[in-house]
Amino acid sequence: MRRIWKWKLERTDAQILDLPKGAEILTVQVQNDIPQLWAMVDDSVTETERRHIAMYGTDHPIYSKHGKYIGTIQLYSGKLVFHVFEEKDE
Length: 90
Description:
With 90 residues, the chain is an all-beta fold.
C-alpha cells in the first residue's frame, strides 16, 4: 500500500536519508520549527536506498550540477531561507 511518510531534516548543508527504495519525494516544509521532508512510499518495500539531500541558503554557491529542486523552507520567521535539492550520484 502507498502512504506518505515524513523525515526530519537536519539544519545542515548536506545529509543522507535512508528512504524505502523507489520513494517519491513530494515536498519539504517546516513543521513545529523543524524542517521535514515528505515522500510517497510503498510500505511493503523493505529495501532502502540512500538519498542525498542538500540545502543552500539564498545567495550561497550551489556546487551540484545534478540536483533536483524539492522546495524552499524558511526558519526563524523568515530570517533564514534554504532551498532544498536532492543530489544525484554521478
